[in-house]
């Protein structure tokens, strides 16, 4: 059984290494509220995995394509590809553009980040306001607040695979696409 090390993000950043340097260079990267690291991983590998995940979620937090380009590998594969979304590196950009058309102020918070081996598991919270349009319906400022979980596979400091699940029922209720009864 692998030994895991639970750290606050402050302790992880204070520990030094690439994670601290990256946080200084990329100030807009969201920091996880809770960070758990596999203590058997070399520090540089753990730092690279955390940095790749933080860049990936900076993309979801801002919609800025430079974070996506820095986070994912050219051979990126979405292992739970939703219908209508392109496979590969273009998929997340396509999804973000559509989502931001409905929720322009979308924010992504990393509640938990767990790094073990070549995997990063992230528990996320997305928030914003439905002020745009989705599926032919215009929003009137309704609050959007739902959770998601990702499993990322990291290789050479980049996300190469993603398995994800979102609380789509809550999201669709908030967007007025399904009833709340």
Describe what this molecule looks like in 3D.
The chain is of the alpha+beta class and 181 residues long. It has a single domain (4-174), classed as Nuclear Transport Factor 2, Chain: A (Roll), CATH 3.10.450. It has helices at 9-14, 17-25, 43-62, 65-71, 90-102, 168-174, and strands spanning 4-7, 34-38, 72-78, 107-116, 119-130, 133-134, 137-138, 142-155, 158-166. The protein has a 7-stranded mixed sheet. Strands 6-7 form a two-stranded antiparallel sheet. Residues 7-24 have low confidence and may be disordered.
The major sheet is characterized as: 7 strands, mixed
Mean pLDDT: 89
Q: Largest sheet, order of strands side by side?
A: 1-2-4-5-8-9-3
Shape: globular
Number of helices: 6
Number of strands: 9
Unreliably modeled segments? 7-24
CATH architecture: Roll
End-to-end CA span = 44 Å
Helix content: 25-40%
Radius of gyration: 17 Å
Classified by CATH, the class is Alpha Beta
Q: What is the structural class?
A: alpha+beta
Approximately how much beta-strand content do the residues carry? Answer: 35-45%
Q: Which series of helices and strands comes N to C?
A: EHHEHHEHEEEEEEH
Under CATH, the topology is which?
Nuclear Transport Factor 2, Chain: A
Instruction: Please indicate the count of domains.
Output: 1
Task: Tell me the layout of helices and strands.
Blueprint: E1 4-7, H1 9-14, H2 17-25, E2 34-38, H3 43-62, H4 65-71, E3 72-78, H5 90-102, E4 107-116, E5 119-130, E6 133-134, E7 137-138, E8 142-155, E9 158-166, H6 168-174
Parallel strand pairs: 2-4, 3-9
Antiparallel strand pairs: 1-2, 4-5, 5-8, 6-7, 8-9
Helix pairs in contact: 2-3, 3-4
